[in-house]
């Protein structure tokens, strides 16, 4: 379970770093279906790109800890889930966005529960391992 969790966390981190770099470098041109929105929106997009890059680095940092902190996984996954909830709110208020944004919403709502389950399973497995190590020999 720990290997799967670590692998998924590293993939998530690398993907977020790549997305962050892409948005930082291209600004508003990185958003599918978005026409030029002017310097204010471009500035905001590049800022968010930097934040997303940092978010990806946090996933990588957390994945490289031994043992992996279930609290860190839950917080990082919770932020991702909150992003998906924000997209749902936008959908309700403004209507359907570009199809790619819908696909991202599905990912942002589907992956966090998987991370929550894996973090809990890894936490329980670590606790059992520690109990076995701490128990006196029979």
Q: What is the percentage of strand-forming residues?
A: under 5%
Q: Note the quaternary state here.
A: single chain
The beta-strand count equals 0
The main β sheet shows up as: none
* Helical stretch tally: 4
**Unreliable runs:** none
Mean pLDDT: 92
Distance between the termini: 28 Å
List the helices and strands and how they pair.
Elements: H1 2-26, H2 39-63, H3 70-94, H4 99-134
Helix pairs in contact: 1-2, 1-4, 3-4
Attribute tags:
4 helices, single chain, mainly alpha, 138 residues, elongated
Commentary on this structure:
- There is one protein chain.
- With 138 residues, this protein is mostly helical.
- The chain has helices spanning 2-26, 39-63, 70-94, 99-134.
- It is 80% helix and 0% strand.
- The longest helix is centred in the last third of the chain and has 36 residues, at 99-134.
- The two termini are 28 Å apart.
- The mean pLDDT is 92.
């Amino acid at each position: 379970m720990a290997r799967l969790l670590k692998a998924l966390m590293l993939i998530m981190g690398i993907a977020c770093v790549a997305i962050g770099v892409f948005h930082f470098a291209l600004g508003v041109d990185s958003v599918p279906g978005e026409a030029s929105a002017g310097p204010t929106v471009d500035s905001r997009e590049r800022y968010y790109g930097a934040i997303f890059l940092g978010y990806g680095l946090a996933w990588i940092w957390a994945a490289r800890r031994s043992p992996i902190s279930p609290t860190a996984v839950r917080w990082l996954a919770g932020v991702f889930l909150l992003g998906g909830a924000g997209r749902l709110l936008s959908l309700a208020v403004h209507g359907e966005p570009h199809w790619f944004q819908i696909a991202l919403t599905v990912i942002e709502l589907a992956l966090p529960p998987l991370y929550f389950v894996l973090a809990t399973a890894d936490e329980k497995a670590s606790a059992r391992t520690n109990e076995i190590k701490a128990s006196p020999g029979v």
